[in-house]
Amino acid sequence: MIDAGKAGTGAATDASAGRDFWLREGPYLAILALTVGGVAYVAMTRRPLVTFWEFVAVASCAVGIFAGWRRAALKEQRVRLVVTQLLHWGAFLAAMNLVFLPSVQAVADADSTSLIVLLLLALGSFVAGVHTQSWRMGLNGVFMALCVPAVAWLDQSALFVALVGAAAVAAAGFILWARLRI
To answer: What is the pTM of this model?
Structure first.
């Protein structure tokens, strides 16, 4: 017979484990979802999304700070983390905006502009992962970088990117399900 106290504790522990999973993995999954969505949208519309990619860069900055916050125990380390990430992502924002200058747009079409911006975001995410010692952030950068040749190789990449995004969501769901079962 099941003890009522243990049953209640198990359910609370499962809910806590699920909440912990989303708090830990949610920011990285959100960046991946934004990236996949942005790449798919640009592939379908053939128009650059300046404001959207700027938002993704700012969100990546916030995730970079989130990723390094636990390791920065002292106030000075946290200030350094925030300043480093702001400078890091500020430089990438500046580089991204250089790509959108009219003189650059005169020689680059929407497809190549999107690939350049995605490559910049990939590099920024990977380097932010190195600086914050976050393998998840670095893995986001690797995933974004792998999207660049995939998008360039496939003329109609929206379906491919959607499938990769669905696989990422399915993998996250499987991990969550496995964690909640234990």
So the answer is: 0.71
